[in-house]
Amino acid sequence: MAENVVVGDDAVDLSRRKFLTTATVATGAVGAVFAAVPFIASWSPSERAKALGAPAELDVSKIEPGQMAIMTWRRQPIYVVRRTPEMVEHLKGHDELLKDKDSESSDQPPYAKNLFRARLPDVLVLIGTCTHLGCLPKQRFEPATPDMGAYWPGGFFCPCHGSRFDLAGRVFNGSPASVNLRVPPYEYPSPLKLVVGVDETQKGAA
Description:
Elements: H1 14-41, H2 47-52, E1 56-59, E2 68-73, E3 76-82, H3 85-89, E4 123-127, E5 138-140, E6 155-157, E7 164-166, E8 186-190, E9 193-196, H4 200-205
Antiparallel strand pairs: 1-9, 2-3, 3-4, 5-6, 6-7, 8-9
């Protein structure tokens, strides 16, 4: 029995040696993980920074025409729609049905105060919360569907209280919402690379 505990003896208990080796490796691995976490975290925006409005990016080219993507900025859903030429055309011809057709009373950056309510006619960027009570409007892009009515040009429908918005986020008469869906500040630093939360006007003011 004594020979099994003599240091340097070839008869040292192999199971004990394996245990010590495993423990050493495991301890080193755990140490490496704890050392790496602060370093990695230092390269990522903090939750506080995100909540305060850290910019959010999206490659718009990955959205098919006629489809919508949803991103998050300031803990709000941002709707990004690649409008087809037909969808853009459907922005015309129903001004008399809208509460704020020229977006005079609605919230959008100066560059989005136009028929398209956007920098680019084919890309719509909206804060996806209803201006009535903050519900999430659903996409109803197909025009003149039986449930929406023959007049319907395509747009958004809020299932909570029935507010309706066209494909520029403009609110229809008869909706509980009083103003159009809001447009956040955004820019394109390169073609179709969308950055929400910053624009040239803000940079100049800074």
